[in-house]
Design goal:
Strand content: 15-25%
Shape: elongated
CATH topology of the largest domain: Rossmann fold
Bound molecules: adenosine-5'-triphosphate
Mean pLDDT: 82
Structural class: alpha/beta
Helix content: 25-40%
Oligomer: single chain
Low-confidence stretches: 362-414
CATH superfamily of the largest domain: P-loop containing nucleotide triphosphate hydrolases
Number of helices: 15
């Protein structure tokens, strides 16, 4: 719905900021523009709302050349969010957010009611409405910036490095919140960042630019990681793209086997009899409680009487990615990843070798025992599949409402 046709921008000093860009951005999706400093991302973004006019070519919005629309009218349908939020320092938070509705002549009461709604939408408590920007943290200010951009409910949002001025933890929270919001709002979003991790996490599609304002590749995150167009893109997406690609493979497709598992009511003698270095201890609903190390087992009593090594992560077959599964295996004291179903019950286990073999498509199932067979067979039949959204544990948990019984599934793993 936003289309660039052979668009270039040359500045009078001889700089070519954007060079012959042709690109079509999907309606209702997030397109991320990413690339090294000075490669023309911001210039491209600003050509959408006519803050920058192209030297050559055409930008169109829903089929209409944007030069045919007066800039103020065009911008009414396009929200704009920038780094450091750009709030008005002498206006309260509520009035900052009410700015656009007021400009549209909504009347004070209605504009403020809308602003209060928007603050709630971006996850800010009502008590902040009366504060001034300097009384908010950087992350909170960015939320206000997003709320303000949504003021007139524009179908298009332009976001220029909106989360790069905050620390990594707050950035992660803002990104998760942003994805949640987008699930509700389905805006057409153009998002500029220089951070490839952010691009992969947020983008439905990613346009990678190289210096000189040239488009190097336009693709989904999965394809960018799997099939970088050339050495520049491969370098830019990073050496660990093999691991990161696993974020797009569903854990549901991985074969699991029944692990050495016993209920917490079982005797220590039963655990010893399994002759395994580690035994997974489960509750009466087969939810995992922890690992018992055979070497440390007492002579008598039940598994309830002994201290268990923590599970580490489990991974959910509903919504988690293969990367979360591999992570779970590597972090587990037994080196076995525990897969749980939608109810949080143990579906089976696998070690890193089995998981990587399965992911590489060379098998990996080691004969599922009866309890796990159903899951394992279904999983194998389906095979690892490329999915959208499997990589975002927060989103996945939202989607299936399950998460893990430990509350520690996966990890921010894209
Ligand atoms: N008004 C201007 N006059 C001259 N050159 C400009 C102007 N604005 C931008 N440029 C140049 O155009 C090129 C692209 O700039 P742009 O801001 O689009 O890059 P960017 O990819 O967003 O960079 P960054 O990640 O550093 O923000 C740069 O070389 C920049 O110096």
């Amino acid at each position: 719905m936003i289309r660039f046709d052979a668009v270039s921008k040359n500045y009078p000093n001889g700089t070519t900021a954007v060079d012959g860009l042709s690109l079509e951005l999907a309606e209702g999706g997030i397109t991320v523009l990413v690339g090294p400093s000075g490669c023309g991302k911001t210039t491209t973004l600003r050509m959408v709302n006519r803050m920058v006019e192209p030297t050559a070519g055409t930008v169109s919005l829903r089929g209409q050349d944007i030069r045919e629309v007066a800039a103020p009218e065009l911008r009414r349908g396009i929200g704009y969010v920038i780094q450091h939020a750009g709030l008005f320092p002498h206006r309260t938070i509520l009035d900052n957010v009410a700015t656009v509705p007021l400009l549209l002549g909504w009347g004070k009461k209605k504009a403020r009611a809308r602003a209060a709604e928007l603050l709630e939408l971006v996850g800010l408590p009502a008590t902040m409405a009366k504060r001034y920007p300097y009384q908010l943290s950087g992350g909170q200010q960015q939320r206000v910036g997003v709320a303000r951009a949504l003021g007139a409910d524009p179908p298009v949002l332009l976001m220029d490095e909106p989360f790069s001025a905050v620390d990594p933890i707050v950035r992660g929270e803002l990104q998760a919140e942003f994805l949640r919001l987008q699930k509700e709002l389905h805006k057409t979003i153009v998002f500029v960042t220089h951070d490839i991790d952010e691009a992969i996490k947020l983008g439905d599609n990613i346009a990678v630019f190289r210096t000189g304002g040239k488009l190097a590749q336009f693709d989904t995150p999965e394809r960018l990681l799997a099939h970088p167009a050339d050495d520049f893109v491969a370098d830019f997406v990073g050496q660990d793209r093999g691991i990161r690609r696993l974020s797009f493979v569903q854990a549901a497709g991985l074969p699991l086997r029944e692990g050495p598992a016993l209920p917490v009511t079982a005797s220590v003698a039963e655990a010893r009899a399994l002759d395994e270095p580690w035994v997974l201890v489960v509750d009466d609903a087969r939810r995992p409680l922890g690992w018992a190390e055979a070497a440390g087992l007492a002579d008598a009593g039940t598994l309830a009487d002994i201290p268990l090594a923590p599970l580490g992560h489990t991974f959910s077959l509903v919504g988690d990615s293969a990367r979360a599964a591999l992570d779970a295996a590597l972090l587990s004291p037994s080196r076995l990843a525990v897969g749980v179903d939608a109810q949080g019950a143990v579906a089976g286990v696998a070690d890193a070798y089995e998981l990587s073999a399965a992911i590489a498509g060379t098998g990996g199932s080691l004969g599922a025992a009866p309890e796990a067979a159903g899951v394992a067979e279904t999983a194998e039949a389906a095979g690892p599949q490329l999915v959208k959204g499997a990589a975002d544990p927060a989103a996945a948990e939202d989607a299936d409402g399950s998460g893990s019984n430990t509350g520690k599934t996966g990890g921010g793993d894209r």
